[in-house]
Amino acid sequence: MRVLFVVPEQPRTTGNWVTALRHEQGLVSLGHEVRLVETVGSVANLERQVAEFKPDLIHLLHAYRAGRPWLGCRQQGAIPSVVSLTGTDLNHGLDSAEQGPQICTVLEQATAIIIQNQLTVESFAVAHTGLAARLHHVAPGVSLGSDPYPLRQRHALSASSILFLLPAGIRPVKANLELLQLFDLVAEAAPFCQLLFCGSILDQGYGQRFQAALQARPWAHYLGEIPASAMAAVLREVDVVLNHSVSEGLPNVLLEAAALGRPILARDIPGNRAAFMPDLNGLLYDSSESFVRQALALIRNPALRQRLVLPMQKIRTSVDEALQLEKVYQGLPVCRPLDSSSSLHAGR
Question: Domains in the chain, please, with CATH?
């Protein structure tokens, strides 16, 4: 099968691209042909890519940013489309006066709709009963890169420092600046801890305010972008992985942290709640006070951190995820039959 993924134009370290590359890896290993197309909203470029590649289906990895240009393509009525709803679509776009109507049109014309968070699948099906029959839950896999990254050595971080890491693009929904300010109380009580940030600056104004606030806090550091292939090495060196987002779909980096057995401290929202097992490999907080209390507990109590470093016993791979995608694709009405003769399919 030939699958064309349409991905919003973003740095390759963002969640959309991490997901796209993992999908590509898994589907190619099953014998499918895959092309990833980055879109900035250009209908002409997308039409050209479709004409060149001649896909059996289009998979849109963002209902608004990938779906909007697809709606304008001449081939739109002739090729089935699958839409993966992102956290931004679900938590912000659907309620937006500008984006909401276009997202609804994309979903109404899609042959299948994918959501990776089981909690969100259930709530979406109740709220959008007319789309429930086309809704599929595809549990995400984890693909850990193998590139080295000597975090403490490269950034001159003491071996005795307790390291907290927020891996997220710098933009308001990730609340990077708000976490930095909240951490003042933690750093005052525990001056031997360090707060690290990594990710692309996706909102320039917000990024400038964030970087200005860093200047007055010697215990906080912005590491810039770290390649996805090196994130596993970084996660292994930190003591606690953070997520302070206002909303999430299902954050890849928390799945990776759980797979590696790194303690997690995350805001109590549905996207984070579904990414790991609270109290087994991480903690949730629902207020500033509970964040500070639990952060200090993790700093002062090595036994607590040790209790939370149990890696997940069952980790879905990119192939496990691709098999779920393949099943969705097989149900599309106008796709040609899958080639079951490949050695990877044999025996499955």
Answer: 2-141+317-330 (3.40.50.2000), 151-307 (3.40.50.2000)
The tokens for 296 are 């200090």
Question: Do 194 and 162 contact (CB within 8 A), yes or no?
Answer: yes
List, in sequence order, the alpha helices (H) in 221-287.
231-237, 252-260, 270-273
Cα gap 105→250, rounded to integer Å: 24
Segment 277-290 shows an average pLDDT of 95
Residue 6 · residue 69 · CB < 8 Å: yes
How large is the angle between the packed helices 252-260 and 15-29, nearest 10 degrees? 70
Pairwise CA distance, residues 270 & 266, whole Å: 11
Encode pLDDT of 64-93 as tens digits: 999 999 999 999 999 999 999 999 999 999
> What's the mean per-residue pLDDT of the chain?
93
Token pair for residue 171? Answer: 């933009």
**Range with the lowest mean pLDDT among 86-100, 184-198, 305-319?**
305-319
Instruction: Tell me which residue of 139, 123, 129, 122 sits closest to 107, measured CA to CA.
Output: 129
Taking the model in full, what pTM does it have? 0.90
> In sequence order, what are the beta bridge partners of 113?
83, 135
* Three-state DSSP state, 37: strand
Q: Which stretches of the chain are assigned E, i.e. beta strand?
A: 2-8, 33-39, 57-60, 81-84, 112-115, 135-137, 162-167, 193-198, 220-222, 240-243, 264-267, 282-285
Is residue 199 scored above 90 in pLDDT? yes
DSSP state of 201: B
**CA 198 to chain CA mean position, Å:** 14
235 token code pair: 């996660």
Q: CA quadruple 283, 270, 95, 19: dihedral positive or negative?
A: positive
CB 203 within 8 A of CB 172: yes
In the chain, the N- to C-terminal Cα span, in Å, equals: 17
